[in-house]
Amino acid sequence: MVQRMNFTQIIIILSLSIALIGYIIYFLYKNKEKVKNIDLKKLIKEKKASLPKWLNKKNIFISLGTIATIVIIICSYIGIKEQQRIEKYNNDLSICYEVIKNDSDFTKFTSIIEEHTKETGFSSDAYKKLYQAIDERIENIKNGNDDEKLINMIKEIKSKNSSNQTIANKYLQVNGYSNINKAINFIKDKKYIEAYELFETVAKDNKDVNKEIVDLAKNKQNEIKDKTFEQIIAKAKEQINNKEYSKAQSTLSDYKDLGNQTILDMYNKATKEVDRIEKEKKAQEELERRKQQEEERKRQQAELDAKKDKIIVDTNGKRIYKVCMSSSTFRISGTFKGQGYFSVKLLDDNQEFYDLLVNEIGDYVVDTSTQVTKGDYYYLQIECTRGSWNLNWWGTYGD
Known about the structure:
Elements: H1 7-30, H2 32-36, H3 40-47, H4 57-101, H5 106-114, H6 120-142, H7 148-160, H8 165-188, H9 192-205, H10 211-241, H11 245-253, H12 261-307, E1 310-315, E2 318-324, E3 329-338, E4 341-347, E5 353-361, E6 364-371, E7 377-384, E8 387-394
Antiparallel strand pairs: 1-2, 2-7, 3-6, 3-8, 4-5, 4-7
Helix pairs in contact: 1-4, 4-5, 4-6, 6-8, 7-8, 8-9, 8-10, 9-10, 10-11, 10-12, 11-12
């Protein structure tokens, strides 16, 4: 890719051009006698060529002067344009700095870069200005001042430039120093637990990235460590007294390994109570589960009992069973012995005629079946006179 010449390069080329033209003029002037004595006719004859009439000493000087003037004008025009470009370049870089430093306007920042797409170095220079502006605002945060606009702007830049590690680190710095300021305000309000935990978050976020921030957060933690322990112990005691053992365990968990025996003992006590309560809870849940299982078993048994064969009529040689079909086929077999009439009918759930299975007089061996609807209720009606019967059937829930 061809790069544009800067203003210094143009001046050098312009100076060299003028010097060259000046040297040619000087050379011709110094050798004017020799030029004057040149026998053009002889030269033309020897070369067998003809020169134009206008080619004389005066016209040569005029031509050279004209060329020199044109070169000077062109170079001056290029120089002016290049100077304007450089001025716009530097001015736009300054604007890039200002819109980040004063306005937190990343959209305008990117729009300026888009005006310089042909200048491959502009984007890199613009981001240097962006980093400079951010660093100066970070210094302001380090001095204890809030800058939520900066935090929001860097979040926006991060979302649009996820691969930019420099921006990612600057976000950690901005957020880290901002949280340190918040934690310091917590200390002023004697909220030592909140401050201690915020310092811990800052240290974890900036681990292996920003040592200065980590050291600052850890030093601040150490300054309030004892007062934080006092508040932790008081808070956990209140929770234990209220039998809020799970809350107490959570309150103490992050502090149990920091060398305070009181906190460790309280944590162990809260944990013991949590385990006991959990055990009792599981035992109660198991008891409830078994109770529900038993209730479900009884319910199912009741449903099954309701479906079993029941005698609803038994008088004068007539017996009617209410049955529920467990199959789509109802089969009946057995015998009748006697001189009288023997009949077996199947009625539907409205006790209306469905099928005639047996209709005989005298001794009879029964073995027949009929198609029914599984799950529906039917009525099995058996009638006989002067005799006895012995029947079995299948396809119902039995007795």
